[in-house]
Amino acid sequence: METLKAAIPESLKRAIGDSTVYDLRSTCSSLHSFFLHFDPFQQMITELADPKYALCGKSKDDASKSKQLGNQCFSNADYAKALECYTQALRKAPLDTGDMESNLVATLYVNRATVLHKMNLSVECLRDCTRALQICPSYAKAWYRRGKANASLGNYKSAICDLNVAKSVEPSMSGKRKIECELKILLDQCKSTSAVVQDKKYNCNAVGEMPQIKLQCVPMQDKGRSMVSSCVISPGSLVHAEEPYAMIILKQCRETHCHYCLNDLPADRVPCISCSIPLYCSHQCQIRAGGKMFRIHPENNGIFKNLPTDLGEYVAEVIQCNDSEEEIEDISEHKHECQGVNWPVVLPSEIVLAGRILARFLPNSCMLMASILLTQELSHCYKHMPAESKLDSHIFAIVLLNCLQHSCGTMFSIDGVSISQVVEIISQIKVNCMTVVRLKSIDTHGLSGHFGEFPFQSNTHLTSTVEQVRVGKAIYKAGSLFNHSCQPNIHAYFLSRTLYIRTTEVVAAGCQLELSYGPQVGLWDCKDRLNFLEDEYGFLCQCTGCSEVNLSDVVFNAFHCVNPNCSGAVLESRALDCEKHKIKHFPVTDNVDKNDDIYEVGLHVFKQNGASVHIRPGYCLKCGSYCDLEASHAAVDKALVCMKRLQDAILLKEISSIAISDALRSLHLLRLNLHAYNKLIAEAEDNIAQALCFAGELQLSMEHCKASVQILKKLYDTDDIVIAYELVKLSSIQLSLDDDTAVDSINQIDDIFSRYYGLHADLVFPYLQYLRGEKLNNFH
């Protein structure tokens, strides 16, 4: 890409950098004309889109090598490595390798099923056996292994059927005798334990909650369109649910999350049939993403002819794959990428997402309809994009159209008109794309042994933290109509591919429903929020958080007054400029309760007797004392270097008593120089709590965790979801200590999660069920 940029004439770069949406056709046409006669561009397109250069296709040789390595690992009882090798072999194995009786893919599924059974993953083992049988219904080893898996799960009726089919199709007498022995053992086990032969079901259906409140889309001055409530809405109400118009997994999650639903990949992940790029959590997701599956028609296979009727019906039910019967959408988002070519892997995720939007219309050669439909419904930020981004969007648009023409085999015009439409789509994606996030609980075990003056406790305790994992990007056309606020009144979350939006506070009739585009009060200070939103989305935020005084923005980066007994905040010029602007438009003395925390930090001095008070950087907002900010900065920087060392030690799990002692001294230094509510102190308290937890010093860890939570409650609302995430950590420490205050923490977590996620709370964050169970088991 840099080679292409360097070759573009400077005059054309300037024209693109200065262009508006009205100039796009001209600038796109000029750049396309240049590339048409530029050999390195043509070579790059060939390497990206020509199947001859494909690195992501199927390869029998590569699959066989991974299979052989998997066999070696299995022989050495290295089951985790064997599992990985067989999965990689499945990604590379062509489905048509071998006949129906010796199919490589079917063999790999059975090999992996054997590993999964060794790892006590019986449900996953069962699914892999079924996949093998859908390819080779007469595969005796697959039926046998399936019977063993069903027996492990207590599905005795199915296990007996599986073993009977295995015996029927097993060609060797020794094999038949082995299966007969297994059948006898299973039947004896059923009799001796009086086992119930009804099979267990392992399906977990999502809560089918749907929005009940009608919203209105109305024009708003300076904001375009916005969603508003038609009635008073109570907290925790589900107001919107929507499937994506287009979705893409982020590159860093390709090995860990399903490429269709973006859920965690199970151990028995399913590869794409035609290429080696995606992995799916099930055949259902694989079919929906690629639109293809390998089908066996039972009536064409001789296995059914010699079986009793009831056993034949059982076999047909197993190999027909129920989820393949579901209706498949006409547009499969991965189908046009599914040739093993390189461009879907190499190009940025946002560009591949643009390709998925365009591909919806390619079969009908109506590619421009994609842009027309989106332009009517979504805004874009082209005029606010920096020159470098405009140039990138031009180049990527031309590259993408050429790649799609190769991959889809559809001839369409690549010219100034079509390229400009793609540039607009790219700019629309930039401002309307939503990041799909998953909540993940990270469990931490205390270390065992001793070091320094900190004797480690037993390593049986377990503590947990909440991590938000970014897994994908998606376009939700209606979801994009919700505007931003740094103090949002709604919360967006995802279950599988579905976007849900829920209110977090009472919303009055006619009031805007606003969510956070990322930055919010408490997470970043005001200046950083404003800069980020202008750079990323092209607008100057004027929400209440950025235009009205709030405690969080005042204290976020504030310094401590030199008077140790004063609770006033000392601000630098950067923060003070933002707060002065707010004070100018929002008289604090007329709108804030005089018992409020905001008076404790001294903001009332901005307005006395109706006249503005002149406040300068470095002077306390409450008592007016001067603070040497240069000296305070030096002390804080020194402390932060030490805290960074502790963070690195936590990541490496190499925590020493010296590191903790140094961090405690640095925390004291931060408290002397920073305001008590400064976020850096909260972060330091949290890091020390984690380190002490690793060291087994849970009582001390709990105290520092509580201190961090108390500061965050000043920066955020006390019932903000961020507080719930921190309380998860605190409650897990309290549970490890058998501290009955864990009950209060868990109750707070439950209340906040119910407000933010409603009936979906347990699905979004299953760890909640564990916390409730521990509360019931330990505290009556």
From TrEMBL:
Keywords assigned: TPR repeat
Domain of life: Eukaryota
Annotated ranges, domain SET: 211-518
TPR repeats: 63-96, 140-173
Gene3D superfamilies xref list: SET domain, Tetratricopeptide repeat domain
Short name of any one Pfam family annotated for the protein: SET
PROSITE patterns: SET (PS50280), TPR (PS50005)
Record-given protein name: Serine/threonine protein phosphatase 5
Record organism: Cajanus cajan (Pigeon pea)
Top-level taxonomy: Eukaryota, Viridiplantae, Streptophyta, Embryophyta, Tracheophyta
